[in-house]
């Protein structure tokens, strides 16, 4: 199965590496180029026991900052971002909104 994961933090990096290790074609997308550079060197962007080895072995994964890598041929797209809880209990959705707009524009069918 081809899967796109938008957001490579604690959940997205682990999910991408695990799915790729199971043989899925996975595209991991994040806006932070430094995080992608770290992953492309075979290192985990987060501290999680065993994840360095899992990331290094995830050869079927593509790690990119460009959301167009997650395209319409995907069977499944996962949007994974942080939600910051603000004073008073409201949730800041800025990261999710930005990621959803990027993935939507990248996967939109071309206009005629």
Describe this protein's structure:
The chain has 112 residues and is of the alpha/beta class. It has one domain: NAD(P)-binding Rossmann-like Domain (Rossmann fold). Helix content is 37%, strand content 20%. The chain has a four-stranded parallel beta sheet with strand order 3-2-1-4, with helices on both faces. Strand 5 and strand 6 form a beta hairpin. 28% of the residues are buried.
Write a brief caption for the model.
The protein has 112 residues and is α/β, with parallel strands linked by helices.
- Overall average pLDDT: 76
Low-confidence stretches: none
Provide the CATH top-level class: Alpha Beta
What is the chains' assembly state?
A: single chain
Helix coverage percent: 25-40%
Domain count, please report it.
Answer: 1
What is the CATH homology-level superfamily?
NAD(P)-binding Rossmann-like Domain
**Termini, distance in Å?**
29 Å
- Rg from alpha-carbon coordinates: 14 Å
Question: Biggest sheet, open or closed, and with what strands and sense?
Answer: 4 strands, parallel
Trace the largest sheet across and list its strands: 3-2-1-4
Q: What name does CATH use for the topology?
A: Rossmann fold
Beta-strand content: 15-25%
**Total count of helical runs of at least 4 residues:** 4
């Amino acid at each position: 199965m081809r899967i796109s994961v938008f957001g490579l933090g604690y959940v997205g990096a682990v999910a991408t590496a695990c799915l790729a290790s199971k043989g899925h074609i996975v595209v991991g997308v994040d806006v932070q180029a430094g995080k992608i550079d770290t992953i492309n060197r075979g290192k985990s962007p987060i501290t999680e026991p065993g994840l360095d080895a899992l990331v290094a072995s995830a050869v079927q994964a593509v790690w990119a900052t460009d959301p167009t890598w997650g395209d319409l041929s995907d069977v499944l797209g996962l949007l994974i971002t942080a939600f910051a809880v603000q004073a008073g209990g409201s949730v800041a959705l800025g990261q999710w909104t930005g990621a959803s707009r990027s993935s939507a524009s990248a996967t939109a069918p071309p206009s005629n």
